C-alpha cells in the first residue's frame, strides 16, 4: 500500500493513505538513502510503501520503502556538522518568510537558502511578512531588498498576516501545488498559515522581547491540506542554514546573476575572486550586482559558516 508522509516526529510518521485516511506508522529497520547522510531518513512529503501490522487490536503501519524523490531541501544539522537534515521533499515551491526586524533576517541567511533551493531545483519566493509593523526606515530597507531580489528574478510578495494583506497573491501561487513555508523562528509562519486557513488554528507565540528572537512553536514539520486546493508544509524555525556538499566551481552557478555572466569571464573555471577579466567583478564594480550577494557568495565559497543565532530556547527540547 502507498501513502504520503504528512508528519514526522522522528520515531512515528503520520501517513495519508490513498483512501485519504491518516495512519500512524513506524519504519522497518534502518533506511539508508544513497548519497545522503541524514539525521532523518524519512521526511514530510515522501511517498512511501507500507504494510499493516495489527497487534493487541491496534493497527499501525510499517513503512517498508521510500519512493524516489523529485527533490528535497536539506541543510546541515547544527550540532552534527557531518550530518544533514532533510527539511521536506517533493516540493513545488518554497516560500521564505523574511522580516526586517523582530526578528532580523540577514541577507546571508536569505542567500544561503536561495542557493540551496537553486541547487535542488525548487522554485523559491520571498515573502516579506509583517509589513503592517514597518516604520519609514524599515520600509525603505524592505523595498531595497525587494528591488535587489526582484532584479535577479525572484518573485517577492509583501504580506501582513494580521491585516490579511497580500494573501490573495500568495494563495494564487500556492493553488494546486505542494508549498513549504520556512524562515527563522518568529517570522510568522504559523500565523500566516492560520490567516490562509483559520480552521487549522496552529499554535503561535509572540517574539521574545529580551532576545528579539522567535520562540519555537512548530516542533516538527507537518503537511496540511488547504481548502483552496493547496498543500502546505509548515516547518520548525531555522536558526542557521549551512550549505551542504557543493563544489567551489559550482557555487556561482546557483547565483543566477553570476551564472548569466559566467561565459563572459576570461577563464571558464573563474571563481570570481582574484582572476583577471572577471565579468562578475566588473558587474559588481558597476553596481549591477549587489555587494550583499557577492559577500554571501564569498562566505559560502570560503566555507565560513553563518554564525548560528544563540538558541535561548534550547532547554525546551524542541527539535529544529
C-alpha-based Rg, rounded: 21 Å
Low-confidence stretches: 205-218, 306-320
Question: Distance between the terminal alpha carbons, to the nearest Å?
Answer: 30 Å
Largest sheet descriptor: 6 strands, mixed
Query: Structural class, please?
Result: alpha/beta
**Proportion of beta-strand residues:** 15-25%
String of helices and strands: EEEEEEEEHEHEHEHEEHHHH
Summed up, the helix count is 8
Shape: globular
Number of strands: 13
Instruction: Indicate the mean pLDDT.
Output: 82
Spatial order of strands in the largest sheet? 10-9-8-11-13-12
Helix content: 10-25%
Describe the protein:
There is one protein chain. The protein has 320 residues and is an alpha/beta fold. It is built from eight helices and 13 strands. The strands form three sheets. The protein has a six-stranded mixed β-sheet with strand order 10-9-8-11-13-12, sandwiched between helices. The chain has a five-stranded mixed barrel with strand order 1-2-3-5-4. A hairpin with a 3-residue loop joins β12 (222-226) and β13 (230-234). The longest helix is centred in the middle third of the chain and has 17 residues, at 136-152. It is globular, with a radius of gyration of 21 Å.
